[in-house]
Amino acid sequence: MYNKRTKINALLQADTTNYEATVMGWVRTFRNNQFIALNDGSTNNNLQVVVALGLLDDATLKRITTGACIKATGEIIASLGKGQKIELKATSIEILGDSDAEKFPLQPKKHSLEFLREIAHLRFRTNTFGAVFRVRHSLAFAIHQFFNDKGFVYLHTPIITASDAEGAGEMFRVTTLPLDGTAPKNADGAINYKEDFFGRSTNLTVSGQLEGELAAMAYSDIYTFGPTFRAENSNTARHLAEFWMIEPEVAFNDLEDNMNLAEEFIKYVINYALKNNKEDIEFLAQRLEDEEKTKPQAERSEMGLLEKLNFVVNNQFERLTYTEAIDILKNSNHNKKKKFQYPVENWGTDLQSEHERYLVEKHFKKPVILTDYPKEIKSFYMRMNDDGKTVAAMDILAPGIGEIVGGSQREERYDKLVQRMKEMNVPAEELDFYLDTRRFGSCIHAGFGLGFERLVLFVTGMTNIRDVIPFPRYPKSASF
Ligand code: ATP
Ligand code: MN
């Protein structure tokens, strides 16, 4: 057995000394040919490994460079130096993997997030990304725990789909047909997808919701947690071409049940991270505070990261209708002074992210759930309200992020659903399987989609969505 190491996190947590331990990890710094700061990713805190004079020959000492991988065995003792309680007094050190200090791109200094994005394969080895992706892991784990505890079934929905009816965004085509112009064509010159791998045209999924609804009509409570793909050319700090989505779908839930579930869920996972990733979140809070200091006073956020997270966990989200929100926006000084890029004039227009952020950050100063949107700006499957003008939709808007959740009560009435599909030109033939749920034992049900990376953004206080997924995909970029 090779791996007889103790994780650095475990050593630092244990308050004991005078025992032998072996550690393995990557050198962050090496001072005075004597003090190695060693990190193994279990925590941002490094273990100080002390190399006594004469333990290693000069040639080996030279190989202890930033980025090198080493194994160290020795005694855990109380540290004499400042900054750490314990340290490892090495009795043997083995270089597992050299790292040419001249070529290793990570220097023991602060690098910009933009630079680190270009070397995303190495950025895990920095404090910021070390913390971000441990928090991401924790949130993913908390999500499964939350739904599992509630008796939800985790449903794997397909990544390759044939229906392009959902209308959530532009799709990536999946094909094995040649792209050099020799693909089989129909009489009218269009490509004949009957000859394609699946015998029809297929795409990467934009959402697992429709399939989720099918399963909810059997298990009552399901959730999905998987990758989704949108070929939208949105070069923003909040959009990715490949992102992960959590989509619970619950039979017998109405819109209010749906909002309650979403609010409880968000609070649960944030709480989990606050409890289980205290050090990492404190580190990220400090990082954010330092970053904020470089901004003009007016642009700084009023709350620090920890304050913000605790505030969200401890306060009710504000709930109001789209119509009430339009009134607030229309009558706001901001609107009257023409400070919105898109002035708010009429009921019925879609809210821009500047409007969402105004409501959340300036007006209510807390997360907001907007409900009952005009049917024209929402999807065909959302349940028609009695007014005939609005649908039972709900979006959750978070400070600094904007939309984090989009959901609705679904239209369970067959006739009404078919009518909406006609009005919105959704091809009913393609969705016959979906309509079956409304033919056989239909019932009221509701669900929502939460963009995982937007949640990670919120909890880590990072500002660009490309920095909270290990290898981001966005227009003109699919490196690594
Ligand atoms: P937006 O208006 O921000 O583009 P949307 O209305 O297209 O969002 P939905 O189709 O409702 O979003 O998707 C559900 C959730 O998935 C959103 O609330 C958001 O958290 C997330 N999401 C949507 N598009 C993206 C994307 N391109 N990258 C990352 N997350 C996304
Ligand atoms: Mn979108």
Plain-language structure description:
By secondary structure, the protein is an alpha+beta fold. It folds into 2 domains: 8-107, Beta Barrel (OB fold (Dihydrolipoamide Acetyltransferase, E2P)); 125-171 and 206-467, 2-Layer Sandwich (BirA Bifunctional Protein, domain 2), CATH 3.30.930.10. Helices cover 31% and strands 22% of the residues. It has helices at 8-13, 58-62, 113-118, 127-149, 209-219, 255-276, 278-293, 305-314, 322-330, 333-336, 353-364, 414-423, 432-439, 452-460; strands spanning 19-31, 35-39, 47-50, 69-78, 86-97, 153-154, 160-161, 173-174, 202-204, 221-229, 242-251, 318-321, 368-374, 390-398, 402-409, 445-451. The strands form 3 sheets. An 8-stranded mixed sheet has the order 6-10-11-16-15-14-13-12, sandwiched between helices. Strands 1-2-3-5-4 form a 5-stranded mixed β-barrel. A 3-stranded antiparallel sheet has the order 7-9-8, with no helix packed on it. The mean pLDDT is 95. Bound molecules: adenosine-5'-triphosphate and manganese (II) ion. Adenosine-5'-triphosphate (ATP) binds next to strand 11, strand 15, strand 16 and helix 14.
